[in-house]
Amino acid sequence: MRAVNLLPKDHYQKSVGLPSTPVLVGICAGVLVAAGLGTDFMIQSAKVAKEQRKLDGLQARVHQLPEAPAGPSAGATQLAGEHSARVTALSTAMASRVAWDRIFRELSLVLPDDVWLTTLTAHSPASSATGSGGLPTQFAITGRTYSHDGVARLLSRLQVIPDLQSVTLVSSTRNEVAGQAVVEFNIVADIRTASGSPAT
After folding, report:
1. Residue 198 lies inside a defined structural domain of this protein
2. pTM of the complete model beyond 0.85
3. Which structural domain range is residue 37 located in?
4. Does residue 133 register a pLDDT over 50?
């Protein structure tokens, strides 16, 4: 018996034809999306692996660092405090230091020939501040000369001594000593300390 195709001719051609265009577009889009997601996943995985390796390297370097040194001991702290106290005491002493040899040498150079001293009193700034006499000045001289002009000349010369300041004439009186007319004077001054500031 011979086989007979009972289907219509058009239906047979449609059933064996290619998929429609929208189906093809959907398939291609799905393939592209899947490929893009796969590529992005691989790129991000590579980045994560790179950063992880960098982190592992940094952690290894941190573990290789030496331990932090211990803080200063109590003995070292005490020594540092004592050193600071000594430096402060030395600075204070140097600030109030007075070069007496230089002051007396300068006084001897400026003292006029017609003036002679009877007394000279000098105190360092520290001793004058704590002394029992409570002297307001650190340098005081009394002496004699033949005229008030000699006293004025001595005053002007004392004022050029760098270590003396506030040179003041306290008194100047005419008297007679052993039949000789003389002028007795009293002069006081403040001493400038090594720091350049006036002694108080």
Report:
1. no
2. no
3. 18-59
4. no
